[in-house]
Amino acid sequence: MRSLRQAFPVLIVVLGATIPTARAQTTATAGAKAPLTVRASCDTPTQMMHVQIANTSDRPTAILVGFTAATGQTHVVNSVDVLAIRPATGADEDYVYVNPKFALATGAPWIVSLAAGATHELDLPLKDFISSLNYSPLDPSIAGGARVVFEGRPAAKQPTPVWTGKVQTVLAPCT
Fold first, then answer.
1. 160 domain-assigned
2. Fewer Cβ neighbours under 10 Å: the N or C end of the chain?
3. Mind listing the pLDDT tens digit for each residue in 112-167?
4. What is the DSSP string of 65-96?
5. How many domains does the chain have?
6. Do the domain assignments include residue 69?
7. What is the CA radius of gyration of the chain?
8. Is residue 175 part of a domain?
9. Distant-in-sequence, close-in-space partners of 26: CB < 8 Å, separation ≥ 6
10. What distance in Å separates the CA atoms of residue 77 and residue 62, rounded to the nearest whole number?
């Protein structure tokens, strides 16, 4: 417990340095329809968010979902954010998904290839969505109505071209 308390200030500094301060709502190109859709739901008893990314195009699409940790067996998501409305001010608050076991890790890109009509599913703990404003975890009571954003980013030095852009959905109230 003591080492966790000592590491927490380092984690806060790293999060502050790596979390973007502003997010814009965009698609792959102006006026173009994204080949993906995203759906999300959450479950209050398990405190989990279920995210489904679907390829709605008629051709295969590759997406960068995150990275593969050094062990080569653990995939770490870093492409899903939640934009919730702060109850106190009504302003948007960005919650970035940060897996606490791998907050300081890096690794090879985790690319998922989706055939036409295929889906990829992720289960993510709500407590691992951390506010970029005050570093608090996402509260399930404010998650309902929040926007879940999947951001496809470019994969550096990869032979496989990946889709880039943003798609989002509204999260129904947690049940």
1. yes
2. N
3. 999 999 999 999 999 999 999 889 999 888 888 899 999 999 988 777 889 999 99
4. EEEE-TTSS-EEE-SEEEEEE-TTT--EEEEE
5. 1
6. yes
7. 16
8. no
9. 165, 166
10. 15
Among candidate residues 34, 41, 56, 42, the one with its CA nearest the CA of residue 119: 56
Of 100, 81, 103, residue with least CA distance to 92: 81
Tens of pLDDT, residue by residue over 4-34, are: 444 444 443 333 433 333 333 333 434 467 8
Which pair of structure tokens corresponds to residue 92?
Answer: 């948007």
Whether 73 maps to a domain, the answer reads yes
117, amino acid identity: G
DSSP 137: B
Range of the domain at 145: 2-170
Cβ-Cβ contacts under 8 Å for 84 (sequence gap 6 or more): 92, 93, 95, 138, 142, 143, 145, 146, 147
Report how far residue 53's alpha carbon sits from residue 114's, in angstroms, rounded to the nearest whole number.
9
Q: Distance between CA atoms of 131 and 84, rounded to whole angstroms?
A: 10
